[in-house]
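User: I'm new to structure prediction. If I give you an amino acid sequence, what do you actually give back? Let's try with this one:
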Amino acid sequence: MTSINKTGNKTGNKTGHDGRETDSEWSDVSAGSEIGAATGSASISAASSAGAGSFGVESAQNLGQIASLVKNCTDCALAKGRINAVPGEGNPQAEVMFIGEGPGFQEDRQGRPFVGPAGKLLDGLLASIGTKREDVFIANVVKCRPPDNRDPVPGEMAACTKYLDRQIELINPKLIVTLGRFAFGRYFPGEGITKARGKLRENDGRMIFPVLHPAAVLRREELRPTMIEDFKAIADILEGGTDGVGGEPAAISVVEPPAAQLSFIDTPGSAVLSTEPAEIPTVNAEEASQPEQLTLF
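Assistant: Good question. You get back a string of structure tokens that encode the predicted 3D arrangement of the chain. For your 297 residues, that looks like this:
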């Protein structure tokens, strides 16, 4: 797929990472409900230093101004423990915007999204459809790393919503791809990502295409063909072909993981597995992934 920006020019080298490379997706039904209750870059690296002044985020006229606001934000407790806020980055005229969960270990240190193993997998998936991260925009539901890589709580997601909303308004992407259950729950609270993935949806006039989080694929190799299939569908959508997109996705075989292993996809018929220990943050899982798992095909 040749990426085309909104001016009609073929993209060459643009600006262009994320993720709390995470997403515990077994219990995504309850998580989605919390997101709905809580929520009613931004940076091209060089632009992040632009002064934000005293205006609010609704007055921000470019992504650099939003990035500056994010980096100085103290609206929730996550600000106290961060090394760097992670506003997001990419093409300000991107046709497709990816939304993940939040920064992980590497993202917190570098101030950039998806720079760990899950980010490398995301790069490979983008390459498989003829594009790269500089052609898209990547952001997160929360802009600072939660302590100990735990899941973000409703208040934290609510505090970051204004920044993500304004980023979406300024970029005005043709397609929003949600990575994992928290990003999906922002638009469709209470629904499970396993059944929803691979189906093109509309929410408030925007096209939403949910996929699994790349970290889920790093932990469960059998999900890789599903992820590749969904990225091929992204290419079709951007090229105007939606036939066959939005139908029933291929079934995902759910295999109960070992007790100490984090689960990434929701459990059929149950929001929480009673046999699971306290939920383990997916950042840890993503950071522990082995290099050989990054092979796309």
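You can read the tokens as a compact description of the fold. Here is one thing that stands out. Residues 154-171 form the longest helix (18 residues).
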